[in-house]
Amino acid sequence: MNDHITSFNKLATDLRNMDVTFTDGDMALMLLSSLPDEFEHLETTLLHGNDEVSLKEVYSALYCYEQRKREKQRRRSRSSDCERSFSKSYENVEREIQVKIQTQQR
């Protein structure tokens, strides 16, 4: 997403250098409409019931979305680590029980 925003900002700067001006709201709408389909829900949420959305609001929403996405990935990773750890612990306990059963049977 950072690359997308950087490219968008570069294009906006190039346009300003050619004396093309846009309102903040226009810039926000252009950024929203340039996003991949993955962000369609974000566009809908930001525009629903609003006459105008600011570029700062769009940047903020994108930043928050990316943070939540990374946090979910971290939680999944931790969950997987936990599951592997639990599985190993369970296997160790299972082995210990089998050993105890075998020694009691002797």
Structure description:
The protein has 106 residues and is mainly alpha-helical. It has one domain (2-105). The chain contains four helices and no strands. The longest helix has 51 residues, at 55-105. It starts with a helix and ends with a helix. The mean pLDDT is 84.
Name some characteristics of this structure.
single chain, 106 residues, mainly alpha, 4 helices, rod-shaped, Retrovirus-related Pol polyprotein from transposon TNT 1-94
Quick summary of this structure?
The protein is mostly helical and 106 residues long. It is built from 4 helices and no strands. The mean pLDDT is 84.
Could you name the ranges where pLDDT drops below 50 across 5 or more consecutive residues?
Answer: none
Count the beta strands.
0
Order of helices and strands: HHHH
Backbone shape: rod-shaped
Distance between the termini: 65 Å
Q: What's the tally of helices? A: 4
Protein name: Retrovirus-related Pol polyprotein from transposon TNT 1-94
Pfam families: Retrotran_gag_2 (PF14223)
